[in-house]
Amino acid sequence: MEIAEVRDGQTVIISLAGKLDNASAPILAEKAGALCDTGVHTILIDLQRVEYTTSAGFRALITIKRRAERDSIQLALCGLNELIRDLFDVSGLCDNFRIYQDRASALEAVGEATRPT
């Protein structure tokens, strides 16, 4: 699995490519956990290039979500292909995450959520 990180102000985009499985899931969870310690406001995980995920991948995403909530960090996912989206639907996880069709719509939504009113 390839994991790339791009910072845009207080938002960090983590782009994944490959298989989110027993080998890569702990690496993702560790990387996201370290980001939570840096004071970011938003973490966006882009799954567009993820081929598939195992239960370990779901576990990592749930762990990241819990950590983000604990630290008052917004977490969003985007770019789920049809297979990954189906797995989220079947597992009942769609309602537990903010999921957007693509990176642009996710960034727009999280940007709106972080703007002062």
* Second CATH tier, the architecture: 2-Layer Sandwich
Count of the domains = 1
Q: What fraction of the residues are assigned to beta strands by DSSP?
A: 25-35%
Radius of gyration, whole Å? 13 Å
Q: Tell me about the largest β-sheet.
A: 5 strands, mixed
> What general outline do the C-alpha atoms trace?
globular
Low-confidence stretches: none
Average per-residue pLDDT, rounded, comes to 92
Strands, count = 5
State the share of residues found in helices, binned by percent: 40-55%
CATH topology value: Transcription Regulator spoIIAA
Number of discrete helical segments: 4
Spatial order of strands in the largest sheet: 1-2-3-4-5
Beginning-to-end CA distance, first to last residue: 39 Å
Structure description:
By secondary structure, the protein is an alpha/beta fold. The chain has a single domain, classed as STAS domain (Transcription Regulator spoIIAA, 2-Layer Sandwich). It has helices at residues 25-36, 55-70, 82-91, 103-114; strands at residues 2-8, 11-20, 42-53, 74-78, 98-100. The chain has a 5-stranded mixed β-sheet with strand order 1-2-3-4-5. It is globular, with a radius of gyration of 13 Å.
